[in-house]
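Re: How this chain folds, sequence and tokenised backbone to follow
Notation: Tokens come from a learned vocabulary of local backbone shapes, not from coordinates.
Start of record: The labelled sequence and token lines come straight after this line.
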Amino acid sequence: MSKKYFVSGIGTEVGKTIVSAILVEALKADYWKPVQAGDLDWSDSMKIQNWVSNERTFIHPEGVKLNSPMSPHAAAAIDGIRLNLSDFELPKTDNNLIVEGAGGLLVPLNEKDCIIDLIKYLNLEILLVSRHYLGSINHTLLSCEILKHRNIPIKGIIFNGDEHKSTETVIEKMTGLPILGRIPKLSEVNKNTISLEALEFQKIL
């Protein structure tokens, strides 16, 4: 049975795309970005295509492409459209699938729905990406709390960046969730570095 995961972060700029690339490579999975807001000339889908090296992965077209690098609800308004959960449908594939979100869990899609509602709508298990910074414990615990409140299954937490043992320990103890791994800060992101990191996650996922 194929594995399908939604990759979300405790906020923006925590490394979701790098983590997604490593997971895609580890699982030889397909990749889908439901909402790409801005950066259309170097989108997350383009990055994944550039960073993975296996021959099985298929990059599915984005669900929606918005021109402005803003929250999806605002970027959609600028483009004259309204995003609805019913606009999104998981790509049809027999392969494993990694779906990458936009920003954190409570990033709005419209005046009612957020990314977390999209995860629930798509009925996917989540992989939560955390990165260490002042306030990251709070953001990680809040993210886990709301996922549990919404009854969204959490596969585990992946730390991205330099190690911080005390932070990782308290997050593991307070959430009760498995820590699936930690990706060190990569000096360069390319097919080789992504492939090397993917080897570790093949054993976990």
Observations:
- The helical segments are 16-27, 44-51, 72-78, 115-122, 136-149, 165-175, 191-202.
- The chain has a mean pLDDT of 95.
